[in-house]
Specification:
Blueprint (H helix, E strand, L loop, with lengths): L1 E14 L3 E8 L3 E7 L18 E7 L8 E9 L2 H5 L1 H17 L7 H16 L4 H15 L17 E3 L4 E2 L12 E2 L2 H12 L2 H4 L6 H19 L4 H8 L11
Antiparallel strand pairs: 1-2, 1-4, 2-3, 4-5, 6-7, 6-8
Helix pairs in contact: 2-3, 2-4, 2-8, 3-4, 4-7, 5-7
Length: 253
């Protein structure tokens, strides 16, 4: 059966001397792995359409339950080459691509997340320096898939609280937290920022000008929540620590 859909390349894995296993996030079929024949050859018919982050119109062939359908065509819609040419941008978007690939189940369409990822890549192409964009993607993504942390009230009684307990995925008030392990302390400002990013539409969010301290606090909490939920850190986080700041605008190796 031949199927066609729009897709974003999340990652690739070399297979043999010239082939690739390509992880696509598709609009109609969700997360799928496809087998691409000889794309690493100089005269490959796939050209640069299998570069990470590229959005293309793809065709793939295989039985409906085939584990590795064969990619037959890939025509670029948006290359996002600019994001791969800057190390800073590449790290940023690689993190959200890895997050998407690790959380979503295979073969389950999620058109909201696809649209969110595509729009985030378009925004990053215009301005890749805002930490707010990455935080916003993570918050909306976690909301869409049902893993969002709860900060609007105690996970047990509903009362207000500033202590986030990672094992519960929620803030817990002092009364209900008796005997619990050490929490992540949050400021009222970071909780308010989280609620705004969760509920406001894009035009309203565009007017938000949070401090670097609030962004850092909220980002750290969300990252800890993601690591706990996945039971492992994202590999892209290690590159943030290893790459010197003075090289952040060079091309990724």
């Amino acid at each position: 059966m031949l199927r066609r859909t729009n897709a974003i390349v999340l990652k690739t894995l070399p297979f043999g001397e010239a082939d690739l296993i390509v992880t696509h996030f598709t609009y109609d079929f969700g997360l799928i792995n496809t087998f691409a024949k000889s794309p690493r050859k100089i005269k490959s018919r796939f050209g640069s359409s299998l570069e990470p982050l590229t959005c293309s119109k793809i065709s793939f062939w295989g039985k409906e339950d085939a584990q590795l359908p064969r990619l037959t065509q890939s025509d670029i819609i948006l290359s996002f080459q600019e994001l791969r040419e800057s190390w800073n941008c590449f790290l940023k978007v690689s993190e959200i691509a890895e997050l998407t690939a690790n959380f979503l189940p295979e073969r389950e369409a999620n058109k909201k997340v696809f649209t969110l990822l595509l729009n985030t890549l378009k925004t990053a192409k215009k301005d890749c320096n805002l930490l707010l964009d990455t935080i916003l993607y993570k918050i909306r993504f976690l909301n869409f898939i049902g893993y969002a942390p709860r900060l609007d009230g105690c996970g047990r009684c509903g009362n207000a609280g500033l202590s986030f307990y990672i094992a519960h995925g929620s803030v817990i008030c002092e009364k209900c937290a008796t005997g619990m392990n050490r929490p992540i302390k949050l400021s009222p400002g970071s909780i308010k920022l989280y609620e705004s990013l969760s509920k406001w539409d894009d035009p309203a969010i565009g007017r938000i000008k949070p401090s670097g301290e609030l962004l850092s606090e909220l980002s750290s909490m969300i990252n800890d929540h993601i690591i706990y939920t996945l039971s492992r850190p994202l590999r892209s986080h290690a590159f943030h620590k290893l790459k010197p700041a003075r090289c952040c605008d060079s091309k990724p190796g």
